[in-house]
Design brief:
By secondary structure, the chain is an alpha+beta fold. The chain contains three helices and six strands, in the order H-E-E-E-E-H-E-E-H. A six-stranded antiparallel beta sheet has the order 1-2-3-4-6-5, with helices on one face. Strand 5 and strand 6 form a beta hairpin. Helix 1 packs parallel to helix 3.
């Protein structure tokens, strides 16, 4: 079982999340009543919908993580899963994303920045 599969199985047990196809057309998504929260695009790459305010709040910590890729202007971060610690980081960030979306009004349609980072991030293997 891949790290992404294991993470998705764990998150599917969370009562606030439901699974389905990702709106970007690539992979599976987990969504809350407010928004899509997580897109599982491959065995290692996951996009997480954090919101601008959450990204700003955690920006320095996110930038320091080798597992995180930030795209300027995006409400999403890409998490590259290489080890169990990266899965733990994803779980913590999903919790933060759920909290951030509870305090955010539901968007009409897909405003700029609400599209995930799929095809906008290149993840290089760790050397």
């Amino acid at each position: 079982m891949t790290l992404a599969q294991r993470a998705m199985e764990q998150l599917e047990l969370w009562p606030d999340l439901n699974s389905g196809p990702a709106s970007c057309g690539a992979g599976r998504a987990l969504r809350s009543v407010h928004s899509e929260i997580v897109h599982f695009h491959s065995d290692r790459d996951v996009d997480l919908h954090l919101t601008v305010s959450a990204i700003q709040r955690f920006h320095d910590d996110l930038r320091e993580s080798t597992a995180i890729r930030l795209v300027p202007g995006s409400n999403w971060v890409t998490v590259h899963l290489d080890c169990d610690t990266d899965v733990d980081l994803l779980m913590s960030l999903v919790s933060a994303a759920l909290k951030a979306h509870q305090n955010r009004p539901s968007p009409a349609g897909h405003p700029a920045g609400d599209e995930c980072n799929f095809r906008r991030v290149t993840v290089l293997p760790r050397g």
